[in-house]
């Protein structure tokens, strides 16, 4: 029997005054966020800006969205890989996905809504847009905390100005008796940061550096904040980008809504993070070039960013 205590994801309270710059708890919150991302590559953020009413409205909206006919959902296309409609696949029959590029910009969520519902769907558009705005604020808060903890605030504004978001919706149906229960293949995200919320159905598992799988069982009003491989490269390998997967064990459908942050500019490791002990590990890279590389990488290596621009 394995007598080690089961690992748990760190939980960090980012609600109310706790994570206000200048508050007495700000510096320690910044350091906790950085250390969690270095050690686990993720943490559970308690963040109360998304009300339970908005949470319900968002997941009701997702049920409506995925109930649309396949031909309608297939109109969600993009010239970027992994951005558009993903239909259930023979090897991965459970997952279906869709995405809105730059969802925090109202016009973008509006045009997605009109594509799906030519006669409009104000409830969908309002709730998804508000949600993406609030969660993108959380993304900037977390990024700012990490930059500050490294003493690199001077890079924050430029970084925020070059951030672009993708809001993705996933539906995992329950497996039939003879089917695989693997909802999403083990992978690490290619984003800079990822912020995820789910309905009440669990299934996401995150691997620790030691190789243990932790089941994600979120408390109320919380999000999973997870680093992607772009953040790992930016930090010169300090920040971890954890492998995660979805295993469907429950009998009802699981929905998740995931905000991915990407960069429109070259991602460059700050010189302050390079020294004799930490020689430069990554060349500056184009984030979407990296995403295209990944989409063509049939090997799906453990750490694609090392294959793409590692030194
Ligand atoms: O749905 C989930 O919980 C995980 C989704 C995920 O890993 C992804 O979209 O990259
Ligand atoms: Fe992921």
UniProtKB/TrEMBL annotation:
PROSITE patterns: FE2OG_OXY (PS51471). Residues 162-263 form the Fe2OG dioxygenase domain. It comes from the Eukaryota. Pfam families: 2OG-FeII_Oxy (PF03171), DIOX_N (PF14226). PANTHER family: 2-OXOGLUTARATE (2OG) AND FE(II)-DEPENDENT OXYGENASE SUPERFAMILY PROTEIN-RELATED (PTHR47990). Probable 2-oxoglutarate-dependent dioxygenase that may be involved in glucosinolates biosynthesis. May play a role in the production of aliphatic glucosinolates. Keywords: Iron, Metal-binding, Oxidoreductase. The lineage of its organism: Eukaryota, Viridiplantae, Streptophyta, Embryophyta, Tracheophyta. GO terms for molecular function: metal ion binding; oxidoreductase activity. This is Fe2OG dioxygenase domain-containing protein. SUPFAM superfamilies: Clavaminate synthase-like (SSF51197). The keyword Zinc does not apply. The keyword Calcium does not apply. It comes from Nepenthes gracilis. Belongs to the iron/ascorbate-dependent oxidoreductase family. InterPro entries: DIOX_N, IPNS-like_FE2OG_OXY, IPNS-like_sf, Iron_ascorbate_oxido_reductase, Oxoglu/Fe-dep_dioxygenase_dom.
